[in-house]
Amino acid sequence: MSEPSPRPTKRMRKGTRSCLECRKRKVRCTFDHHHGQAPCDACIDRQTTCQRQEHVPAAEASDPSDSISHRVGRLEAAVESLSDTVAWMQTTRPSGPCESADSGKYSHVANPDTRGDQESRAILNGEAVITPGAFGNDHNRNANETGDDAPPVGTEPAYLHSLFNNHVLSTAERAGQEHPLPPNTESRESIWAEKGSADLSAQVPCLADVRVVVASAADWWTIHNAVLSPLSVDSKQALIDAHPHHLTPAPSPTKVAMWLVYFAITLLQLPQDFDSTRLGSIKDPHGLVQRIFTHVDDFLSADSPLQARDGIECAIVLAKLASYLGRPRKAWLLTRRAVTFAQLLNLDRARRQFRNVQASGSIDSLAGQHLEASATVWESLSGLDRFLSLLLHLPAAAPSTLSKREQTDRRGSQNVLQHMMSEQSHIANRICYRDQLDSESDAEDETTRIIEDLSKLEQTQTDTWWKLDRSDIHDISTATPVLLQMAHYYIKIRANLPYLFRAKDNAKFRTNAWACMQACRDVLRRYFAVRTRLAEGVFLSRACEIQVFLACVILLLHRDRSSEYLPPTDSWESDATLLNNTKIAIGKAAAGTSDSFTEMLISALDQIEHCLDAVDGSRVVQLRVPLLGTISISRSATNFPPLENPTVPFWAIPPIMSSETLGIDEGIWDWPTDLNTLDDELSFWAVDTSLSGNPSNF
């Protein structure tokens, strides 16, 4: 029997017009490389480009590594290699440190797009290569490079991040197509850090100009150190000593940014008649303040600066600068972000750790200084956060600490004012907690306890301390107690405000209404005293204007209702004089920032008064007030119906009043034409008097 003839081999076409992708997928190709047609449909769906087969090397075109079976094999090899490595480490080194990469057991190299030339590609991206034992012999590696056979399991380095790389994409990349490699984050961050450091260093003025500014500016550190914990730069001399160009070694970019913000706040304390021609490297002080704020804000937008204590301190002073510039919401956002990173750094536990180590007696001076500095930064940050949360009626950053606090020893505090500020911060935090309660009875009980604690706090000081005398205010040091009193009365407003508009219908809330109105008057009296006595500098912060504006609006809304449920001694004539004095004091605000802020406040108060004095009832004032929300005020000449109950639970803040009385506009409020250029932070005090029609009675 003759041997059977060999089976004829399948004849293959030597040429084809299909692109490489369509050939691999065995689909019809519409690519015409002769006429320069667009990529075929298959390549468009896969977001690739067509590659002519004759441009692809034969070895690469027939490389079996792109098959599913080969990829699964490589994945199995990676898992087995990882298991062997872990088992070997557990048996040979159960508790010792990891070996270095030079030991040959395992190494960390980059992710090459092919399996060849592993050592030369080991510095690209830093992906892990895990190999038990040696890297494998040259025979296996060469065999894999030629595509003849798959490597034995466990002998080839398993590049975990490249197991599912598309062979067509890597081929197109080598052919010069636009398929960028994964970004090198490390080098990009280093370049960005160098650029950011150069931008910050370019804003640093010369030491001679710094001395001139410090000598002429008001000492805003006095107030900060009195009510908050002092930071690293706590005086004028400390600002001069920390000049970045005169420190060896050169400070980090974070320290440079922090110093710039300290200097920007100091620039805002210059008097109105300051001669800027005395400065050589500073052409426009106010322009420099804006540039510093922009550059440092961009610098802190990355996460890396906030991963250290210096970055947290830089965020604190930048938030203070934002509040000085009339941007309280920006300050709150900066503070909240800083609180998050500070908690990740365990700064909130630093004070407790410091006390525990002190009690044990096993602490060295360096570790003690580190814990003390961390605790100081956290206390200053938390105090600022609580104040801004109370001011803007936004949640506190650490709600878990609302019901608890470490007992503060008054004698152990830096001074009496700092102890009082600490107690006020705790009460302010409890007010934020009360506003989140769903039960009306629980809110009333918590309010009663808050008012009792405020009364106890008042009793810690003598009657002489609470007595206001304008003649005693002659510098920032003597003004600090008055500002602390102002903050205390604002907290009292905040505690009683939810019950103010229910006092007429419920007699048990009349005490709260009277306390709220009286606290408004106390805030205005102290603001007028400090602002008129110390008009230079913006050390008062724009937050004071927010408090004052709220107090003015409350008094204006009750100008015809004082006799209904308030004592007759609180007459409108005295309130009118107080409001007029307050507008004069606001007009004396320093010109360190844009005058649009103070002009907006005065314009809003004037428009409200004009609307309430109108006899034709044709004017409507629409504005947004802190804690009160967006309201529309109109006045009729016939009758004056009292305020109705809020349309939401009365303990909720802000208390939304009914549209029949105050004409609440629940829609989105539009800016007036002449106010479009103002900062969006001023929308709290925006006024629109262009409304017309027949408004409802007020």
Task: Describe the structure in your own words.
The protein has about 700 residues and is mainly α. It has four domains: about 30 residues, no CATH class; about 110 residues, no CATH class; about 200 residues, no CATH class; about 220 residues, no CATH class. The chain is built from 26 helices and six strands. The strands form two sheets. Strands 1-2-3 form a three-stranded antiparallel sheet. It has a three-stranded antiparallel sheet with strand order 5-4-6. A hairpin with a 3-residue loop joins strand 4 and strand 5. The radius of gyration is 35 Å and the shape is extended. The C terminus is likely disordered. It comes from Cercospora beticola (Sugarbeet leaf spot fungus). InterPro entries: Zn2-C6_fun-type_DNA-bd_sf, Zn2Cys6_DnaBD. Keywords: Nucleus.
Task: List the main descriptive attributes of the protein structure presented here.
698 residues, mainly alpha, 4 domains, 3-stranded antiparallel β-sheet, 26 helices, 6 strands, 50% helix, disordered C terminus, zinc ion binding, nucleus
List the helices and strands and how they pair.
Layout: H1 20-25, H2 41-45, H3 58-61, H4 68-92, E1 107-108, E2 128-130, H5 138-146, E3 158-159, H6 167-174, H7 185-202, H8 207-216, H9 221-227, H10 236-241, H11 253-267, H12 285-300, H13 309-324, H14 328-344, H15 350-360, H16 365-392, H17 416-435, H18 440-459, H19 463-466, H20 476-496, H21 510-533, H22 542-557, H23 562-565, H24 572-587, H25 596-613, E4 620-625, E5 629-634, H26 659-662, E6 687-688
Antiparallel strand pairs: 1-2, 2-3, 4-5, 4-6
